[in-house]
Amino acid sequence: MSRLVKISGMVDPHVHLRGLEWSHKGTFHSETSAALAGGYWAVLDMPNTPPSTVRQSGLQTKLNAIDAEAVCDWGLYYGATADNNSATYPSIIDDVCGLKIYNNATTGDLLIDTQTIREQHFRYWPAHKPIAVHAEGETVVDILQLVRQYRKFTHFCHISTAEEIGYLSAAKAEGLPVSIGICPHHLYLSENDVPHLGALGRMKPELKTKADVNALWQAISEGVVDVIESDHAPHTLAEKLMPTPPSGVPGLETTLPLLGLALHEGRLTLEQIVALVADNPRHIFHLACPPETYTLIDFEYTYIIDRQNLHTRCGWSPFEGMRVVGKIIEVWIRGQKVYNGEQILAPSGFGRNLCHNSLIP
Ligand code: NCD
Ligand code: ZN
Ligand code: ZN
């Protein structure tokens, strides 16, 4: 039996692609291939992989590299810096999808922990493109204060606790322009999995308690959550086995089948899934779905996640061994079949910068 479902214009607005100085972990080609294999039309790439996209030069280097290699459509975030790079905003704004502000400890050196510097970024960032924030715990409250002051649309990445959901539900009730993203690993794994996963269960934010996991599912069912985002951040197995392993897990190829599992178990409806992985992220980032851009998924197909079948170069998954539901049958972009369920059919460089081509005015 099969249950074929068509979803138009799937977007993952939170990935850390690899390439350039981090090509040993993956390349723009390998990780955008993982995006297609996961059913995605487009991904939005974070600014903190070297070279950081915090000046025009670093941004240009990344634009050139991804433009030559990407097989899906894409956008790049600009990164806010502690030394206040807001004077460069006018020169980069047309090339990027949004601004990312890291407000808690993270990979790379983009941490901003002083409220006055955060305020400068909120003040000068052009209001027509979203701000995305990494903010955990009480820091969510600090950022909400700036949203209240400047009324600039702010996406809260990878929300992982009941406490954070509480702050953001209240912010939405207050009418603040905010959206909430949640990652599959915070829905399907908890701190109880860290002992057996070891470093493969280490990411930022870290895995939380069962009570937090339940609060996230509850928030999704109540419609408080806007986006499911992977925070795809592959590192090699060798790096993960080192004494001080880097944080981050791959996720682009497992998000949709994990949501298919929730569909199968009756925890989510198909309408909710379409909103979380396609319609809502497109609306938040003002992305127009190009004609004939969709994914066909068989939501009767169940299989066990196995590293052999992944396109991400890192070749592992924290979800390995889980039985999931949903096989990506085909992906089409702009009338061209780019994935046939097994192979990537798009040539390197097929992907376009959405901020040049698909923005809704
Ligand atoms: C990210 C990575 O490795 O690129 N890791 C992660 O755990 N999310 C970087 C980051 O945002 O910390
Ligand atoms: Zn983050
Ligand atoms: Zn991230």
Give the secondary structure arrangement, pairings included.
Layout: E1 4-8, E2 11-15, H1 28-37, E3 42-45, H2 56-69, E4 73-79, H3 89-92, E5 98-102, H4 115-124, E6 131-134, H5 139-150, E7 154-156, H6 162-174, E8 178-182, H7 184-188, H8 194-197, H9 210-221, E9 227-228, H10 237-240, H11 255-264, H12 270-284, E10 294-304, E11 323-333, E12 336-339, H13 354-357
Parallel strand pairs: 2-3, 3-4, 4-5, 5-6, 6-7, 7-8, 8-9
Antiparallel strand pairs: 1-10, 10-11, 11-12
Bound molecules: N-carbamoyl-L-aspartate and zinc ion (2 copies).
N-carbamoyl-L-aspartate (NCD) binds at residues 16, 48-49, 106-107, 203-204, 231, 233, 246-248.
Explain this structure to me?
The chain is an alpha/beta fold and 361 residues long. It has one domain: TIM Barrel. Helices cover 32% and strands 18% of the residues. It contains 13 helices and twelve strands. The strands form two sheets. An eight-stranded parallel β-sheet has the order 2-3-4-5-6-7-8-9. It has a four-stranded antiparallel β-sheet with strand order 1-10-11-12. The chain starts with a strand and ends with a helix. The relative contact order is 0.18. The model has no long low-confidence stretch (mean pLDDT 96). The site of one zinc ion (ZN) has 5 residues, from loops.
